[in-house]
Amino acid sequence: MGLFIRIGSALLAGVLLLTGCAAVTLDADLNLTPEMFAQRQMQTRRFDTTDEQKILRTCAALLQDTGFTIDETETKLGILIASKERDATDAAQWAVFIVGAVFGVSIPPDKDQIMKAFVTTRPVGTEGKQVAVRVAFERTVFDTEQRLKKIEALNDPKMYQSFFEKLSKALFLEAHDI
Amino acid sequence: MTSDRVKRHFLLLIPLLFLTACATTQDRLLDMDTSQVQLRSIQSRAFDTTDKEKTMRAIIATLQDLGFMLDRADYTLGVVTASKARADSMQMQVHATLRITVTVRPRGEKQLLVRASAEYQRSPVTDPKPYQNFFNSLEKAMFLEAHQVD
Fold first, then answer.
1. Which domain holds residue A128?
2. How many domains in chain A?
3. Is A19 within the bounds of a domain?
């Protein structure tokens, strides 16, 4: 019996320690790590063209086609930032919510999400014969009570593959890995 | 009699409260906690190049590598602002935001001065270490050494 209490309190202490953990820290988030390079690889493709502006234009059109609104651009630096607000309702979470409610526990399910896309282009290769395109997606999720629930980078490789497939189709150019 | 005095004192206290609020806002608007010169030195580095476009592109690439989302960029002014915010209430991760503004301007004939100023959880970052880390990351993207300036 005493052992159970001891294990229980140890677990509780662990949970309490976790509570104070900040999602972004000054020590970690300005340092390059190997994971960040892997992420760069997933988010980047090269195209055989010298026309950086055309790539940016096509990216803008592609984002518009997929329901994004362009928030900020700077052609001279090869930048596009876009966002869209969408429903984030997940059937599984509603099931948890309803089951939880039966037992008197309330876990508000996700309600809305804001998705953001950050596209950069830059000339690469010898004499700038290629243009590298990098896109990063992230999302902010709110629950049914409009409370911030989550801000996360979207790391599903399929999402990025699909973006670049659509981009190369629109450009009539093949996308190369970096 | 006593209650009258208390009332008068109380009335005097009200404008005082307003004054305090004003002073705080003014302090916050143009506050300079650390010595301004010292902070500028912590936040700045000089690079041996005059290519502003290349430098700004390297700054943006570094910020994207670090997982930041760009908020604003202006080539003419040489200003880039980005932020990194993460939160996960299910995994008990507290919402935290790191914002950074980076400016580029000429320094003499042969150099560019890059200055970064960061804000973490609504307070200015005055510790040298995070800036050191940022410039180390930037050096790799620039293929150039960052020189400390006074």
1. 26-171
2. 1
3. no
Q: What's the gap in Å between the CA of A112 and the closest CA on chain B?
A: 15
Cβ <8 Å between A20 and B94: yes
Asked whether residue A17 is domain-assigned, the answer is no
ipTM entry: 0.80
CA distance A30 to chain B (A): 5
Interface test with A, best of B42, B53, B92 (most A CBs within 10 A): B92
Nearest CB neighbour to B69, from listed A122, A138, A150: A138
What does pTM read for this prediction?
0.80
Q: Could you report the per-residue pLDDT of B73-97, keeping only the tens digit for each?
A: 999 999 999 999 999 887 888 899 9
The answer to whether position A59 is within a domain reads: yes
For position A108, which CATH number holds?
A: 3.30.310.80
Tell me which chain B residues have a C-beta less than 8 angstroms from the C-beta of A24.
84-86, 96-98, 120
Contacts of A120 in chain B (CB under 8 A): 60-61, 64
- A13 located within any domain: no
pLDDT, residue A16, reads 46
Q: B11 pLDDT exceeds 70?
A: no
How many other CB atoms sit within 10 Å of the CB of residue A106?
A: 9
Confidence of residue A17 (pLDDT cuts 50, 70, 90): very low
Site from A12, A25, A29 to mutate, B interface, most B CB atoms within 10 angstroms: A29
